[in-house]
Structures are given as structure tokens and as C-alpha cells.
Amino acid sequence: MITMHPGEYLAMAYIVPMGITQSRLAKHLQVDRSSVSRLLNCEADLTPNMAVRLSLVFDLSAEAWMEMQTQHSLKAEKRRFEGQKFEPLTVQEVEEDHAVA
Questions:
Q1: Which residues of 60-97 are buried (b: 16+ CB within 10 A; e: fewer)?
Q2: What residues make up the domain containing 15?
Q3: Predicted model pTM
Q4: Which residue, 35, 42, 37, is CA-closest to 4?
């Protein structure tokens, strides 16, 4: 399972090996160059819209592109919450709350 940012994967799997410029990719995706730049620089999350566009230009499904973004985002959020304590909510507590009300 790939947990890197989709922009990193895009650069590693397609842009660098194929020698594609950001301008050329933007033209094929029918977006402005800044959108491609933000994605490649990991400054923007992949949107469903861009995932579909990428799937139409490259040999990877929109679902695979989105799964990559989901895994990357989840990993980042899990890191953010490391060490924090949350109190589990039990069914018994909920039942007690209803009994008091």
C-alpha cells in the first residue's frame, strides 16, 4: 500500500521517468500549471476531480489515486494524534446517561 503523497508518486512514477514538464501535464489534464505545481510539491491534497483527470491521462484508476491520498492523509493525522489520550465511550455509559435523563 502506497502511503506517499500522490504528488510524490506522480513525480516518481511518471514525471521524472517520462521527462514530462509541468506545463505539458497541465495541458493534458486541462488545468492550470499552478494546480500541477501545487500537487507535485505536495502543497495541495489530491481532489476527486484531479484523480479522475489523472486516471484519464495515466494508467492508474481514479480510485487508486484517491486511495493514495486517503492513506497519506490518514498516516499524517495518526502522527498528529500520537501520544494523546482519548477516553473510550462505553455502551454502559450511554445507557446510564439515558437512565438519568
A1: bebebbbebbebbeeeeeeeeeeeeeeeeeeeeeeeee
A2: 6-100
A3: 0.83
A4: 42
Please state, in angstroms and rounded to a whole number, the distance separating the CA atoms of residues 74 and 63: 16
Q: What's the grid cell of residue 41? A: 510539491
- Measured distance CA(82)–CA(3) in Å, rounded: 18
Read off the CATH number of the domain in which 14 is found.
1.10.260.40
Query: Is 1 within a domain?
Result: no
- For the record, the C-alpha cell of 50 comes out as 484531479
Q: pLDDT tens for residues 22-66?
A: 999 999 999 999 999 999 999 999 999 999 999 999 999 999 999
From residue 99, give the alpha-carbon distance in Å to each of 7, 52, 94, 95: 52, 50, 9, 6
Q: Residue 2 phi/psi, 5° resolution?
A: -85, 125
Cell numbers that stand for 26 in this block: 497541465
- 68 membership: H or E segment, kind and range: helix 62-80
For residue 100, what is its C-alpha cell? 438519568
